[in-house]
Specification:
By secondary structure, the chain is an alpha/beta fold. It contains 13 helices and ten strands. Helices cover 34% and strands 15% of the residues. The structure holds adenosine-5'-triphosphate and magnesium ion (MG). Adenosine-5'-triphosphate binds next to helix 3, strand 9 and helix 12.
Amino acid sequence: MPVSRTPDNSSGHPRSASAKRGQSAFPDPLSVSAKREQSPIRDPQSPIPNPQSPIPNPQSPIPNPQSPIDNPHSLKLAISGKGGVGKSTLAAALAILLARRGGRVLAVDADPDGSLASCLGIPPAVQRERIVPIAARRALIEERTGARVREYGQMFTLNPRVSDIADTYAYVHDGVAVLALGASAKGGAGCACPENALLRALVTNLVLERGETVILDMEAGIEHLGRATASGVDTMLVVVEPGQRAVESARRVLTRAADIGLRDIGIVVNKSEGPGDEEMVRAALPGVAVCGVIPYTDAIRANERSGRGVLEGLGPDALAPFERVLESISVPRRTGVSA
Ligand SMILES: Nc1ncnc2c1ncn2[C@@H]1O[C@H](COP(=O)(O)OP(=O)(O)OP(=O)(O)O)[C@@H](O)[C@H]1O
Ligand SMILES: [Mg+2]
C-alpha cells in the first residue's frame, strides 16, 4: 500500500504513531501467512558451496531427536546485548555449530556496524566484494519500494516484495549463509524512509517466513524487531559480560524485549573468568534464565586478532559451553526482568 511520506521533522527521524509504540507499521504478517516455507539459500555470486559442508563434527554431542536443536530447520534466534559483549562471537559460533550439525543456517547481521562476517571467518576482501549490506543496495531499494533513496515527500510501498532477497544476496561460507542488513542513511530503524521500509519487511520475512534456522545478530537496541516480527522469534539471547554497564544495558534490552512480546528470553554470560562472574550476573538479573556461561577464552581473542573465524582451532573443552547454549535453547522459558 503506498503511503505519503512527510518531510523530516527537526530530529530528522519522523515516526508513525505505531512506530512510537514500538509496533511494526506493516500489516501483521501473521494474519497473512505465518507459514515458513522451505526455500534453499543460493547466491549466484557465491562460490560453489563447499561439498564437504555442512561439516560433520565428531565432537558434537549425540543428537537428541526430541530437541529442536537437533532438528534445527526453523529455529529463529535473536542475539542482543551491549556493544562489545560478544554478540557477534556468539551468533557466529552458534551458526557454525548448527551448520555442522546439518542445519541450514542463515546468519543475519542486523547491527549497522556489524562484524558477523568476520566472526564467521570470511576474509575482508571477500566481505567487501560479496557482502554488500541491503541498506546500501540503492537500486534494489528503489526498485522494491518505488521511491528514490534520500528524496523527501515521496510515495512508497510499505510492503515491498522481499521474499527473494535472502536467496539472492546471502553469501554462503562453510555452510552458513550470511546476509548483512546495514544501516539506513537516516539512522533510526523507526524512520519512515524507503531503506527502512525494505529492511523492516525483510526482517519480518526472515523471521516469519523462512524455512531454515535464522540467527539475528542485533544491535543492543533491537529496533529492527517490531511486535509482529517478535512473535516469530523463538528465543532471544541477551549477552552479558560481568560488569555493571553490560548488566544495565541487558536490563534495558530485556525490558524492551518483553514489551514487544518476545516470548522466550535468556541471558548468556560471556567472558566469564570464574564462578564469581556468573554469580554477579545472576544476582543482578534475578528471574532471567541463564542459557549459558562462556569463559573468557584466549583462543577466541587470538582468532579475532588474526582475522580467523571465532571457533577456529578451538578444542572440545572450548566448544562445550557454546554447545550447552544450543542445548539450553531447546528448553522453553518465559522470563521477565526484576528491577
Ligand atoms: N568468550 C570470549 N573470550 C575472549 N574474548 C572474547 C569472548 N567473546 C568475545 N570476545 C572478544 O570480545 C570482542 C567483542 O566481541 P564481539 O565483536 O563478538 O562483540 P559484539 O557484542 O558483537 O560487539 P559490537 O557491539 O561491537 O558488535 C572481540 O574482540 C572478541 O574476540
Ligand atoms: Mg557485533
